[in-house]
Amino acid sequence: MDYYQKTYQRWYNLFSKVYDPFMRLFCFLFNGGFGGKQRFHELIIKWIDPQPGDKIIDICCGTATLVMMLYEKQNGIGEITGIEISFAQLRIARKKQKHERPFIIQGDARYAPFADNYFNKSVICGALHEMPQEVRSTVLSEAYRITMPGGKITILEHNKPNKKWKAWLFDLMERVNPEYATYKSLLKSGLINEIEQANFKIIKTDTIFREFFQIVLAKK
Ligand SMILES: C[S@@+](CC[C@H](N)C(=O)[O-])C[C@H]1O[C@@H](n2cnc3c(N)ncnc32)[C@H](O)[C@@H]1O
User: Fold this and answer.
1) What are the structural domains, with CATH classification, of the chain?
2) Ligand 1 pocket, residue 142 CB under 6 Å
3) What is the rounded CA–CA span in Å between residue 53 and residue 75?
4) CB-side exposure of 99: number of CA atoms within 13 Å?
5) Residue 104: CB within 6 Å of ligand 1?
6) Residue 196 pLDDT greater than 90, yes or no
7) Cis ω for the linkage preceding 102 (within 30 of 0)
8) Does the pLDDT value for residue 58 go beyond 70?
9) What is the pTM of this model?
10) SS3 label, residue 165
11) Does ligand 1 have an atom closer than 6 angstroms to the CB of 125?
12) Which atom of ligand 1 is nearest to the CA of 124?
């Protein structure tokens, strides 16, 4: 295990215990009260646009909320896979799993154990800002490798809002990251820029959730 993997295991051993409740509270406060988390994920799913028969990978799937919702939307016709590095996050993800599918595997997205061009859609949701630049670049290159030509990637990332109080609140929340510096480095180099450097072509982008997040749809 390298330094990066150890940091992640340690951090999510703690954070995974409150990850889902934290997200629920955050969405309750900033995304319209009860049902805010559900609405948040539904909006991301609209961007992913899952279709029967799609092979979709959620890279860094965390506790697999999105994986489960995609699986239900797709009604079992197709293939939904999640890859996640943290054993603690996976333990929570697996509690949500009622059947063998969707597939949730433990692994490092820098070395994704899938064939070239295997998936026609991929997703990275809220994970890149926690990674050092060289890890982000490898993860995005791997996402490119396993996405088929013409296939699409949806990336959701933290976004620094324009309003002063929101930007202040946002910065405060970022400080709980294992490496605050990684979020800063993503802001500096720019999400779109890094996605393009991995050879994806941007289709559209928007800010959502009171500008707390940027969402990008791109194509291989
Ligand atoms: C902020 S969470 C987001 C989880 C999930 N995508 C969501 O939207 O709820 C970031 C996740 O990325 C995972 N992660 C970070 N680096 C990873 C890597 N190299 N490979 C796989 N998972 C990774 C972390 O363990 C964590 O669960």
Assistant:
1) 3-219 (3.40.50.150)
2) no
3) 10
4) 9
5) no
6) yes
7) yes
8) yes
9) 0.94
10) helix
11) yes
12) 6
